[in-house]
DNA sequence: ATAATAGTGTCTCTAAGACATTATATT
DNA sequence: AATATAATGTCTTAGAGACACTATTAT
């Protein structure tokens, strides 16, 4: 039997197979705190509880495509930072059956989330505090997420911190034009500690990746700062 | 219908599902070059070609357990560094059917690989060169790996380099006791460039993670160096 | 003795933190 | 004028690279 005969005669149903899903951790920054997008589940199991948005992976979609679709459908988002995070495959992580979840990790400036209607309760932003990576409602109540979604969120925050210094994740949380103060604030929220202003400025401008726009911010009652943008794919 | 009724009545065969495999990238260092473990495929497709060792994920094994089993069965290895790398899910990456592969990434000192019988052609170590992450046989012939295994190997080397400075990956490539020269050599092979000896020594000893054993190496025709070990989970 | 590496000391350069000073907008 | 932050300069400290020097082993 040659290879093409083998493939033609191969029976894909010979072995039992797990289901595969993608789950999305969409992080943003609001009011000097990290926030994660949750949606209320409309089906069993864990119906009416808040969980990460997700979807089963159909046979004709790559994992990246499935994640992009979830970002579009459940969050209604424009293109932004999206990368694969980690794959969670514990045998009993879903009470229905064996489900392997490929988690994805997205970032968006809070301004881009504004158009989502909070009255539909489709979107629950929650405060994120460090020291164990707990998830809280805006009223300060601690949430226990269904499945292993708490662990998935914690993994995403670890990844965000690890990538802060050498990647563009901070810029994905800001609008296209931003001040150095806003950029420093993003870094401080992610790291959970204050940073030295002159050193931060020198380091950021020293990367050569920032470009002054010539414009300034306005609307504050103090000296306006220069607006910068990220240079395109240098 | 309550939740337990729902779960009991859930039909897992309602949707078509992909197959899930784990594939293992086992890296080691020999003769001042990175090497990756390949096995000759005994089945279609790509029969008799060398590829990464792997296995389908059965319903009762976690992903980590499946990867450990592959490491044990196909490589016959003692416990070592093993972590999840990335999940590859292109629709046509396997000509048979939809297969999603969770790649794992293992490290082992070359001395621990010695007992594998190369006459069985079950093990083909290949040279790894940078600048595109090519895989070569020991005779210098470039190999094109089946499936997307070339891309998986490249991803593993990227990960290895990224983790070199802040994790224990270098020690996973060395025996329990090693000299600072051997440790520096591991770093140099992974980075592909020479390092400054005094600075390297100061930096390594400054981490406080190295412990002198009081013993020295022997067998060389030059001054023997102190043997160190990695401190346990400080 | 010679060869080859171990291990250390010195000098320089760069980057970051701490602190202070001026500059400039809104109210 | 008062206020809050922008933007910059100075000083100090920590770490790494370059280079050189001595120390120690096998042959």
TrEMBL record, chains A, B:
It comes from Sphingomonas tabacisoli. InterPro entries: NUDIX_hydrolase-like_dom_sf, NUDIX_hydrolase_dom, WH-like_DNA-bd_sf, WH_DNA-bd_sf, WHD_NrtR. Gene3D superfamilies: Nucleoside Triphosphate Pyrophosphohydrolase, Winged helix-like DNA-binding domain superfamily/Winged helix DNA-binding domain. Residues 170-230 form the NrtR DNA-binding winged helix domain. Signal peptide: none annotated. This is NUDIX domain-containing protein. Residues 26-122 form the Nudix hydrolase domain.
